[in-house]
Design a protein that fits this description.
With about 120 residues, this protein is α+β, with helices and mostly antiparallel strands. The chain folds into 2 domains: about 30 residues, no CATH class; about 70 residues. A two-stranded antiparallel ribbon has the order 1-2. The mean pLDDT is about 85. The structure holds zinc ion (2 copies).
Length: about 120
């Protein structure tokens, strides 16, 4: 088996040749970052944002808990109806538009519920 032919270093304006599989010469091998390609999943990524926009649109941009209580409040975020911690999914059917104050109240309630489940047996 013949040796691998050297390729030009991938660093811009380098000009040296390398046989390293990452394609950088010795001097530029630090530019190779395998950990820079981690797959992002979960909140914060693009798919979540698209889903969030879709749910907000579906709910007409109105806070659903407020609407159930007869109030009309513009929603600012999208929240899980059944918390993920309790087995809820990221499906649209488990998401609803919610306003900041409802979200805050809900988060506080869920934190309290988590404490009430005996997860604080210290
Ligand atoms: Zn180089
Ligand atoms: Zn609300």
């Amino acid at each position: 088996m013949p040796a691998k032919p050297p390729r030009p270093c991938r660093a811009p304006a380098c000009g040296r040749k390398t046989t390293a599989s990452h394609g950088y010469c010795e001097e530029h091998s630090h530019l190779h970052k395998p950990w820079g390609t981690r797959k992002g999943s979960g909140r914060g990524g693009r798919p979540w944002r698209r889903k969030r926009d879709r749910v907000l649109q579906r709910d007409k941009g109105l806070c659903q808990p407020c609407r159930r209580g007869g109030r009309v409040t513009p929603a600012t975020e999208v929240d899980h109806i059944k918390p993920v911690a309790e087995g809820g999914t990221d499906a649209d059917s488990n998401l609803e538009a919610i306003c900041t104050s409802c979200h805050r109240a809900k988060t506080a309630r869920e934190a309290q519920a988590a404490r009430g489940r005996g997860e604080s047996n210290l």
